[in-house]
Amino acid sequence: MPEQQSLGRATSGVVGAIRFAFGALTAVALGVQAYHSASEGRSLANFFSYFTILSNCSMTVVLLVGGVLGMAGRRGVPDLLRGAVTLYMAITGIVYAVALAQYEALGTIPWVNDVVHRLMPVVIFIDWLAVPPRRPVRWTQALWWLAFPLLYLPYTLIRGPIVDWYPYPFLDPREKGYGHVVISSLVITLTFLGVGVLLVWAGNLFRERRVVQMAHADKG
């Protein structure tokens, strides 16, 4: 048993170091892009109004805090918080691949674009599966994950006419009208729900497998 506990602490330290490294990478990417945007005279308020940036910021905090706690041998951030940022980053990756990759990212540094849109959505999803929730995630709990995107939509639509700027073409009513925005929002909402269901199912499935493996290890 002491050997297993030592192995568990060592594994927690390794996972913590990996999380911290990816969190630091994303923090650097966001910082470099924010500085680059500001130096070119672009609004930082607009920069931090992208769902992508807000999702990456929240994920960065979770990874850095979780990394430090893991390396210290302590319990990491709550799994529901991990699940939330995993959902937001998954949607970031999916929406970028499906709807935004075709648009030229004006002023975005290419390697930063790759980090926030391509690399980190995959990394955080793997993290969710590799270190599944300690307790089963209930569907009612996971519904809280939708709070942020549901608040982001009215924020964007209210702020847009005031500053005459929208972060994404599918949320911009100036050319195709609000009907297009409504349809796009419904599609994205359904995508949130679908991906959220997948994350809950996968997290609980991998948790059950981990429990079975630990039970077999204890018997051995």
Automatic annotation (TrEMBL):
InterPro entries hit by this protein: Pr6Pr-like (IPR049713)
Protein keywords: Membrane, Transmembrane, Transmembrane helix
Organism domain of life: Bacteria
Name listed for the protein in its UniProt record: FAR-17a/AIG1-like protein
Origin species: Streptacidiphilus jiangxiensis
Transmembrane segments: 12-35, 47-72, 84-103, 115-131, 143-162, 182-206
